Amino acid sequence: MEKYIRSHIISHIETAEKLLSDRSVLDPVEKAATSIIKAFSSHSKLLLAGNGGSAADSQHIAAEFVNRFYIDREGLPALALTTDTSILTAVGNDYSFDRVFSRQLASLGKEGDIFWALSTSGNSVNILEALAECRKKGIISLGFTGARGGRMEGSCDILIKVPSDETPRIQEMHILLAHVICAIVEKELFKK
Asked: Which one in 59, 119, 153, 176 has a CA-CA gap of 20 to 30 Å to 165?
């Protein structure tokens, strides 16, 4: 069992090391942080969504902005579109599960807001529908996915593709990179 445990930790470390040497990941991370800083500075908001583990990650990331990350500071306007069961079930029932995020973006989003989409495959239909809504409304789209990019490739203003095809490694790197972005945003907006 110890060998199995170690193999997962080694796989995690190897994926993280790939991030360190991959400008195609690091450059969009910097661009994402800069875009979020600009949005918050302009009184715009951050809206996030994903399915399954990515839904949990979107809630985690929103909480880091609304509450605090490293420092005590005012809250920042971030909202996970995965949390309101009444909206999710109403849209899913009356329209389709494919529209649970796009419908919320149509109602809550405005030009200059940022939509942070998480999909390990890059092919989640409800995420793709939401990205299409972003284009209609002038909402900046930030995508987090895996190495292949899936159908999110070409659908996002900023796309961060973790160099892995393994869902657990992709999700682990999504949270690592999200924490980096949170730290940069907090540091830049709340410099002492």
From this structure: 59
Of the candidates 95, 94, 114, 5, the residue with the CA atom closest to the CA atom of residue 49: 114
User: CA nearest 143: which of 58, 82, 56, 67?
Assistant: 58
Q: How many CA atoms lie within 13 A of 3 on its CB side?
A: 0
H/E run at residue 187: helix 167-189
- Tokens of residue 3, six digits: 């060998």
Q: Edge-to-edge, what's the strand order for the sheet holding 140-145?
A: 78-80, 46-49, 114-118, 140-145, 158-161
Give pTM, 2 decimals. 0.95
Q: Is 46 helix (H, G, I), strand (E, B) or coil?
A: strand
